[in-house]
Amino acid sequence: MLEQIIKFFMKTGYANITLEQAIMILIACFLMYLAIVKKYEPLLLVPISFGMLLANIPQANLMAKGNFLYWIYQGVKLNIYPPLIFMGVGAMTDFGPLIANPKSLLLGAAAQFGIFTSFLGAGLLGFNFKESASIGIIGGADGPTAIFLTSQLAPHLLGAVAVAAYSYMALVPIIQPPIMRALTTKKERQVTMEQLRPVSKTEKIIFPIIVTILASFLVPDATALVGCLMLGNLFRECGVVDRLSKTTQNELINIITIFLGTTVGATASAENFLQWGTIKILLLGLAAFSVGTASGVLFGKLMYVLSGGKVNPLIGSAGVSAVPMAARVSQVVAQEEKPGNFILMHAMGPNVAGVIGSAIVAGMLLSMYGG
């Protein structure tokens, strides 16, 4: 009897846990703390951190072929989940501010500069082209896009890239404001912008169709992301598929978020995550995100000058594609400088443009380094 008890104990996680697994479990618990207590992007960080916890339970092997998480992970590996997430984002997002002010596309484009600077930085630190592209895309502050690209170019980095991308998305309210204040004057931050023109229903219906055609012809590898984003928005705006729109906004995106987050977190096993390369990825990701924010703000300053002081440069920081959090941060900083100043809808234009821009950049990198 005693022999059987000892044999059972030797097969438990308590008898087989390594120091590295213990560290990863502590990291997972810390991320859950940030998500639950601090409310940092909880819809994403809760499943990701719990997936990380599951991946590091000794002897569980949930990601081994044939086991529970292995089958769910195929949606990540086969790039099914990220486009479906984009469909949900499109269904929940009003593209009206971007349509009303097409110049905000330039701010979204400027904020993608962080992707390319970190791509170069990753190359200098010894990563190959495919790995550098996967790390650079963190600068777009777009988790699904980062997963979409990394799963095809550098799947061994998926855990680190996903954790970095979603962590920095969650930390937008902490990372962005100091950069925004450092690069703008009080006068610039107090600019009150004119109300956007009304956008017709026809414009809102035509917009996703035109963008899909133009972007997909330009970068065919971005078609899955851009096309699903625009399909979701068409569900929202066309007015004849309310059931599809509501399902896409709620049940579909919620289910996919659970599957995506849990399985991506589960790729962060101790042997994959606890490496010097992971620290480099986290630092490069922070640099990419910071440079993207700074680039958007600086381009906003240029638009401020060219418009004769009519553009608030703070909206440039929303050019990263953390929708709608980055736009809300622009609004909060503006109101701190001038209570009652309402720039949220102006910031939503660059914010939506950033989503489109990061998807196009991902398609470009995939077309250059994929295969």
UniProtKB/TrEMBL annotation:
MF GO annotations: lyase activity
InterPro entries attached to this UniProt entry: OadB_MmdB
Pfam families listed in its UniProt record: OAD_beta (PF03977)
Domain of life of the native organism: Bacteria
Residues that span the membrane, as ranges: 17-36, 43-60, 80-99, 106-127, 157-184, 205-232, 252-274, 281-304, 352-370
Coiled coil location: none
GO cellular component: plasma membrane
Membrane topology: Multi-pass membrane protein
Location (main, coarse): membrane
EC number: 4.1.1.70
Example GO BP: sodium ion transport
Subcellular location: Cell membrane
UniProt KW keywords: Cell membrane, Ion transport, Lyase, Membrane, Sodium, Sodium transport, Translocase, Transmembrane, Transmembrane helix, Transport
Top-level EC class: lyase
PANTHER family xrefs: OXALOACETATE DECARBOXYLASE BETA CHAIN 2
Name of the molecule in the record: Glutaconyl-CoA decarboxylase subunit beta
Organism field: Tepidanaerobacter acetatoxydans (strain DSM 21804 / JCM 16047 / Re1)
Gene: gcdB
